[in-house]
Amino acid sequence: SPKKTLDGKKVLITAGPTREAFDPVRYFTNYSSGKMGYSLAHVLQERGAEVTLISGPTHLKTPEHVSRINVTSAIEMFEAVMKRESEMDAVIMSAAIADYRPKEIFHQKMKKQEGSLFVEMVRNPDILLELGKRKDKQVLIGFAAETEHLEDYAKEKLRKKNLDMIVANNIAEEGSGFEKDTNKVSFYYPDGNFKSFELMTKHQVSEHIVDALEELFKVSDLS
Ligand code: PMT
Predict the structure, then answer these.
(1) How high is the mean pLDDT of the chain?
(2) Does any ligand 1 atom lie closer than 6 A to the CB of residue 150?
(3) From the alpha carbon of 169, which atom of ligand 1 is closest?
(4) Amino acid 88: pLDDT
(5) Is the pTM of this model over 0.95?
(6) Distance from C-alpha of 53 to C-alpha of 66, rounded to nearest angstrom
(7) What domains can be seen in the chain, in order of their start residue?
(8) Residues annotated as binding site?
(9) Which of 9, 92, 108, 134 is placed for a possible disulfide with 141 were both Cys, Cβ 3.0 to 4.6 Å?
(10) pLDDT band at 223 (very low <50, low <70, confident <90, very high)
(11) Active-site residue set
């Protein structure tokens, strides 16, 4: 069994999509299955970390010895994360959080009407941006899911959200990103360093992310 290199570390991980209600029968969401985040939770736990998993709606089984908190919307995920972030040694945001939600939630089923339907969407809070503002000694890792300009957009998120590392996945690439069992990622760091990986299973990607987290802990424990 793996060495307990993360003994005593508290790690918060988010996974899955969020679901933004429109009326009693409809909602907006995205294709995240939760596989990437659940796999990370499993590997973190194997290495001895105390893992809290905040999850949007998925069909996945909770990894053993991981404490799971279920949420539905981005606002619920925001509240669940902010309630716990200050006691964490690291936060990894692998959830695919909806950037927008319907401005109005209808309490009755929306009936068909003549012509087009226009739905006004308003911005959801950016959880990672807020974590970046509050960060002190904590290690903060984000993801970037992009279909183009992967490197530029990932580096921009790394800087803007005050992260220690970002995992960039090109979701337009064959076998990569949402729902798949594999992923092709690159890691970017604030000092300009980066690492690019071949396509591999999400489990293998998780091993690399957790290796990187251990390195980041070494650096932050020294300072
Ligand atoms: O769940 P799977 O099917 O296994 O797919 C994995 C994945 C593709 C969902 C995952 O690997 C991934 O890329 N997750 C991040 C998806 C995403 O929303 O990326 P983004 O580039 O839109 O967001 C950038 C970062 O900010 C992410 O860490 C995200 O969690 C965070 N964010 C985004 C919006 C928001 N309102 N609040 C946030 O905290």
Answers:
(1) 96
(2) no
(3) 13
(4) 98
(5) yes
(6) 7
(7) 10-107+117-222 (3.40.50.10300)
(8) 99, 109, 125-128, 143, 157, 161
(9) 92
(10) low
(11) 30
Q: List all residues 6 or more positions away from 221 whose beta carbon is below 8 Å from its beta carbon.
A: none
Cβ of residue 126 lying under 6 Å from some atom of ligand 1: yes
ipTM: 0.98
Please name every residue paired with 67 in a beta bridge, in sequence order, or none if there are none: 52
What's the pLDDT band for 43 if we cut at 50, 70, 90? very high
